[in-house]
Amino acid sequence: MFGSDFFIGNRARLKQLFTGTAPIILTANGRLQRGGDTTYLFCQDASFWYYTGIEEPDVVLVCDKDKEYLIVPPRDAARQAFEGAIDDAELRRISGIEAILDEKQGWKRLGTRLERVKHAATLAAAPAYMESYGMFTNPARQRLIDRLKSYNDKIELLDIGEHVARQRMVKQGVEVEALQKAIDITAASLRQAFRPSKLPTYAYEYEVEADLARSFRRQGASGHAFAPIVAGGARACVLHNEQNSSALSADELLLCDVGAEYNHYAADITRTVSLGTPSRRQQAVYDAVLEVHQYAISLLKPGVILKTYEDQVEQFIGEKLRELGLIKTIDHETVRHYCPHSVSHFLGLNAHDVGLYDLPLEPGMVVTVEPGIYVKEEAIGIRIEDDVLITAEGNRVLSEALSRTL
Q1: Which of 78, 95, 204, 234 has the most other CB atoms within 10 Å of its CB?
Q2: How far apart are CA 352 and CA 363, in angstroms?
Q3: pTM score, whole prediction
């Protein structure tokens, strides 16, 4: 689906967006320790893949004026036995970059260039630990930055993050095709799991998760694009409840927030279904979320700024919460007590893809629409999420084929 022309074109457009003469230097992710001498399954830096198509860790891309080359790390016999050898010819075929240099040659060439320039362009490193998410980050970008500065401690590094975000926000046709395939696989898998004859047979959340994973792989996806959320009853009120280990009960609602990954592109769909006959209250809350969902989609079109859109949708959620008797006064704090997350985010190579939320939407951008209402004291957690392509005429819901019936 993605030939070398895709990656060659992406690099060319990046050079057009970044008008400076400084060399552009990007790094692949590194492997992360899982325990002892084992690693987590390798996951490539999305932007590095976008410009190269390369899956290997620790490779460095250099775009210097009209010259491009890759610096490939050494891999001794022991690592080759476990991970395989790096095939330079394959790297050339995938990326469209002819010059493949080993570690010594590559850094000698790049180091000589760095000693003579005042600026170099790269992607800024995230903090080693992101407090707001409670997670450690991949150290590859910081490692690259430290190495660049070791050749010239006075060099000024220019962050091209905004250029990359502007480029990746607008999807090309082949990217939309990959997204649509990931979405179709996800929808078909959920449809199969939610069959009236199948749904009552699930005793535990993990059984649903396992069936979805199996269905994703059988249809050609690489697996889950993110940790799946399969949560019944009150557990659905924890937004990222990923344990998926509890028993299911017929009087509960089941929330599934999942997405297949196909050719690196992520679907992100949420459906909430009743495991038995929904109560009047469950149905009322569900209908309120569905109304918000439909209202939010109706707003999406070119020119809309997501920050403004979020304020509009928040007001509408407040009206629904008041109708449900959950709040009396509509304000940010009371609304966010029952809906603590944003309604939309960008979608693409990551489920939460890069994007600039203060820029107007353009045709080719893909966003989610995922309002929710979470009433912990009533053990009701409901979210409905679809994936939406912005078009010249307005929008197209890429996941429209999947029913939204409770």
Answers
A1: 95
A2: 19
A3: 0.96
